[in-house]
Amino acid sequence: MNSALETAAHPAGLRRVAIDPVSRVEGHGKVTLLLDEHNRVQQARLHIVEFRGFEKFIEGRPYWEVPVMVQRLCGICPVSHHLAAAKAFDRVIGAVPVTASADAVRRLMHYGQMLQSHALHFFHLSSPDLLFGFDSEVARRNIVGVAQAYPDIAKKGILLRKYGQEVIRITSGKRVHGTGAVPGGVNKLVSAEERDALKRGLPDMLAWALDAVEIAKQLHAQNPVLYRDFGSFRSNLLSLVRADGGLDFYDGVLRVRDAGGNILFDGVSDQGYRTLIEEEVRSWSYMKFPHLRSLGAEQGWYRVGPLARVQNCDFIPTPRAEAERAAFVAWGQGEPVHATLAYHWARMIEMLHAVEVIAELLDNPALLSGDRLSAGARQGSGVGIIEAPRGTLIHDYDVGDDDLVTRCNLIVSTTHNNQAMNEAVRAVARDYLDGRELTEGLLNHIEVAIRAYDPCLSCATHALGKMPLEVSLLGHDGALLDRLLKSDGELHREMPRGGAPAA
Amino acid sequence: MNPGRVPALLVFGWGNRSRGDDALGPLCVERLRETVPVGVDVEFLDDYQLQVEHALDLAGRRRILFVDASVGCAGPFEATSLQPARDASFTTHALSPQALMQVFSDLHRMPPPPCTLLAIRGERFELGEPPGVSALANLDAACRWAGTWLRRP
User: Fold this and answer.
1) Is the Cβ pair B71, A463 closer than 8 Å?
2) Which ipTM was obtained for this model?
3) Which of A144, A159, A469 lies at the smallest CB-CB distance from B102?
4) The pTM is what?
């Protein structure tokens, strides 16, 4: 639970290395390393360099607009924001529980989102590292390289994602900016034709999801030391679980396990999350550092997302995924699995579970008919918590008598994992970079550790030309000593201080 | 639409409508959809970003027009013929259009349809801001050019 290397004891005389922005993650992140004259790492930090101001974007809006509007916060998991907001405003209008039909349609939408997001991450963002190696040729280490070398794997990933997107389109009404969930329920059900079309695709999706779990499992079996030790550290684990302890991505109560797997907190209502969690601001990052209130910032930080969920639950309530969870737990030999790379394996178990749940939901008659909306006594506030692809997502609102939002607090999954990603960076810096000359491959090791969390650091602004990768090496006096730029398919190196261009 | 048959032309724009000038791509698609001449066999799609599964949307087309906001192009817009490329655009969850074309080629073992990128000059991308005045003027000019692209035989 330590944060060694977060702050150097004597930073003035150290070299600074910046990875800016981190690639193949969503948004703008920057890693800085402070090295001494022997290239020993003295400080390592993941900075979030874009301030988003999401809460101010929402305050003052009519509450019924918010579930649609929040989708524009993020181009990667808009459905998660859509549903978390809808759940919060269910509370505001007293619609708890929503109808069986609304619950079924929302769950189908959400598990479609989990499927498409996990497929994208594993097959297209992480597989280049996992299949080719962390320090393989940089020009090959991307989805195009995967499509060339492993076209079947790439195609399965695309079709899994496409299927998940189709589930979202059918349940939300549109391919993007869907309006399926509204405060109190949903505004459309699923037609028999739409259901049947989705059912026809299920056998392939199930087979490919099983294949994906097998790939992840084999990667661990083929290189157990790497997959056990890379970026590894112990932490608490937080997620929603069902009241009976089963895995649930859509609803439940909050549970926390400590690093040894013991339950610290259980059955915490989503409406009472603030009794469990508080957020800390640090001067060097725009992203807050949430932690368990009773344990404090030093001991109370935790991980969320697939690694936490698969181990926090007592069981997965679908048979194939539960069998795979058992194999995953066995890998830990009696201890929780804390390996950063195990996120990928856990993510694929979750993707398999998502396909199984979609199959169950498509047999649920409530999808096709029944009441869409419910309502009850009006409240002044509401909290909606959902397990988004990257982890626990919290939407918390106050609404005035005029129906305008007066306060909004969002804790997104990546914020929960802020301290954990910093710990992963430090672990890799300590194990791989300490005392060595820096290369692009070594720096990619740091990015591999960050990418395992599938962080979403920003929202969807990706105009052409906005996202190069720049690595800068600065002397202790701030002078530029070296710069590595990855842009337009080329890797350029500049040596502005007396050296000739090196590559 | 008949299953298995797709319109000959595809216009695909992307961007976030709540991010200032980043909305130019979807806005262009929206305007073209509203003004498309009768008889033009075209499908209009928009999304937040280009993603790998969009490679499947390229199949069966005669011509494709990609539309996006650009901070690097000259105003008011630039139209460029594209070739598949293994570029280094994989910096986030999104792809460049050239990379998307390359994914199509690798998956289908054939070249993609002819693709053109309509890059519309944008400058401000702040959350919650509407598109700027100059960006909207650039959009007008770009939509006029795209109208001629649609009517081309």
Assistant:
1) yes
2) 0.76
3) A144
4) 0.85
